[in-house]
Design goal:
Strand content: 35-45%
Distance between the termini: 137 Å
CATH topology of one domain: Immunoglobulin-like
Order of helices and strands: HHHHEEEEEEEEEEEEEEEEE
Helix content: 10-25%
Largest sheet: 4 strands, antiparallel
Structural class: alpha+beta
Number of helices: 4
CATH architecture of one domain: Sandwich
Radius of gyration: 53 Å
C-alpha cells in the first residue's frame, strides 16, 4: 500500500474537498433539470388522440385531420369560415351614379321597346326624377290618300304604256309610291290582269304631283283600265330640297325629242340624287310620254346649278311639259 508522506496530506485533502463540491454541484444541477422537465410536462401535457379507422371502405379516411380539429378550436373555426367563403370582395358596392336626362330617356325607350310598346307616335317623358310619370302622347292620325289623273294608254309594238299623273291628296309624305294598273272587261265585271309599276319619286310630299309610266307587255284584249295606288307612309328623311328650273329646250332627233335644261339648288346644303321627271302632253292636254334624268354628278352644291338631259320617244315636240324636281337632303 502506498502511503503519502505527511507533507502531502493537506494538498490531498484540499483536492478531495474540491472534487466533492464539484460533484455535489453536478448532482444539484441535474436535479434542477429533472424538476424543470417535470414541471413542463405538467403545464403542457402531451396527449395523442386515438386513430380511428373508417367505418367502411366507402367512407373517406380522416386520419390526417383528426389532430388538427382537436388541438386548435380557433384553427377549426377559421377552416369552417374559409370553407363557407366564396373569396369575393365583401366591401359594399358604391352607390350608382345618377342618370342624366338623356340616359334616362334612352333606358326608358329601350324598356318600352322590349315590352312591345310602339314608339311610332312618340312619347312624352317628364323631368328626371324617381317619381316622374311617363305619359303616352296622344297618337296623331295619319291620313294616306292619293289619286291618279289623266290615265292614258299608249300603244307601242304590241305593248301598252300607261301614262298619267299621281297626286298625294293626304297629309303625310308617301314613300316610293307604286301604281297598280287593272285591266277589265266591259262593265268591269271581270278582272283580267293587274300590273304593278313604280314612280320615279322616292318621296311624294302632300299636295304634290309626279308623272308615271307603267309598261304592260303584250296584254290580252281588254275593254277598260283603272289605276290604284299602294300607299306607304314615309318613316324618316321625308323632306325634299327646294329646286328651281332655270331653263330648258327641246331638240327634235326623230324618232326622239331631246330635252336639256338647267336647275338650281335653293338650299344651303348639298342635295343628293337630284332628278328631273317630265310629262309630255299634246295640244289637248293628254299625256303622250314620260321621261326622267339625274342632274350631272347626281349631287348639287348649295346655290349651285346643274344640267340634265333626257329623251322622249316622239317624232315632234310636245305642246306642253309638266316638270317635277326632287332632291334628297343630307341626314
Amino acid at each position: 500500500m502506498h502511503v503519502l508522506p505527511p507533507s502531502e496530506l493537506p494538498v490531498f485533502r484540499a483536492q478531495r474537498t474540491r472534487f466533492a463540491i464539484a460533484l455535489a454541484m453536478i448532482v444539484l444541477l441535474g436535479l434542477l433539470a429533472i424538476f424543470a422537465f417535470l414541471r413542463s410536462r405538467q403545464k403542457f401535457p402531451r396527449t395523442t388522440p386515438p386513430i380511428a379507422a373508417p367505418a367502411s371502405l366507402s367512407e373517406p379516411a380522416t386520419w390526417g385531420f383528426a389532430h388538427a380539429r382537436t388541438a386548435s378550436p380557433q384553427a377549426d373555426r377559421r377552416s369552417f369560415e374559409a370553407a363557407q367563403s366564396d373569396y369575393s370582395d365583401s366591401r359594399p358596392l358604391p352607390p350608382p351614379r345618377p342618370q342624366t336626362p338623356d340616359e334616362r330617356r334612352r333606358s326608358v325607350r329601350t324598356m318600352l321597346t322590349q315590352q312591345g310598346v310602339s314608339l311610332d307616335h312618340g312619347l312624352t317623358i317628364g323631368p328626371a326624377s324617381p317619381s316622374a310619370p311617363i305619359e303616352r302622347a296622344s297618337p296623331k292620325t295619319v291620313s294616306l290618300s292619293a289619286e291618279v289623273n289623266d290615265l292614258t294608254p299608249i300603244r307601242s309594238s304590241g305593248d301598252i304604256w300607261f301614262v298619267g299623273m299621281l297626286k298625294n291628296t293626304g297629309d303625310s309624305p308617301l314613300d316610293h309610291p307604286r301604281i297598280a294598273i287593272s285591266l277589265w272587261n266591259r262593265g268591269r265585271t271581270q278582272l283580267l290582269a293587274t300590273i304593278h309599276g313604280s314612280t320615279e319619286r322616292s318621296v311624294l310630299s302632300p299636295n304634290s304631283s309626279t308623272p308615271f309610266k307603267v309598261l304592260v307587255r303584250k296584254p290580252s284584249p281588254f275593254a277598260e283600265a283603272s289605276a290604284s295606288v299602294e300607299l306607304t307612309a314615309c318613316p324618316d328623311h321625308c323632306e325634299s330640297g327646294k329646286l328651281t328650273l332655270l331653263s330648258h329646250r327641246m331638240i327634235v332627233l326623230p324618232p326622239f325629242v331631246k330635252l336639256v335644261g338647267t336647275i338650281r339648288n335653293d338650299e344651303d346644303v348639298t342635295q343628293e340624287f337630284v332628278k328631273v321627271i317630265v310629262l309630255a302632253r299634246d295640244r289637248d292636254g293628254r299625256p303622250i310620254d314620260e321621261a326622267f334624268a339625274f342632274v350631272s354628278g347626281t349631287k348639287l352644291a348649295p346655290r349651285a346649278t346643274g344640267t340634265f338631259e333626257t329623251y322622249f320617244v316622239l317624232s315632234r315636240k310636245p305642246a306642253k311639259l309638266d316638270f317635277d324636281l326632287e332632291g334628297a337632303l343630307p341626314d
